[in-house]
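Take a look at this chain, tokens included, and explain the fold to me:
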Amino acid sequence: MSIWDDYKTSVRTRINVKQDRLLLTERQWKLKHYIKIDDKCGRYLWVNASCPNQELYLWDEEVRKMTDEELTAYRTKEKGKRVARQKAFLQQQKVKKEEELLQLRREITQDIVKALLKTLLQLKILIQA
């Protein structure tokens, strides 16, 4: 009998986990530096009743401690993700600032043109008078 027999597609909130057992997502296990034993471990379950996606849930007996090589690879991968997110954020900020500067330049240019047109109109009235 598998530990998953009672949880075919149940919503996460309906799973009663015994106090001596631990049921976490694959990502939560990785954050604790554990990795699944093999690809057949775990079960995809709904995170909650209104969530549109499923996550891979693993029991504590379906994971093992990461080796030093796996831990190094995991940390490198996570660092790469953080760096990529930071670069994307900085790029968005740069684009936003450039758009704001361009808008400010347009407004200033329009104000200058309006002032020049007003001055030219006043000069034209003075010359005709």
Residues 44 and 56 are 4 Å apart (CA to CA).
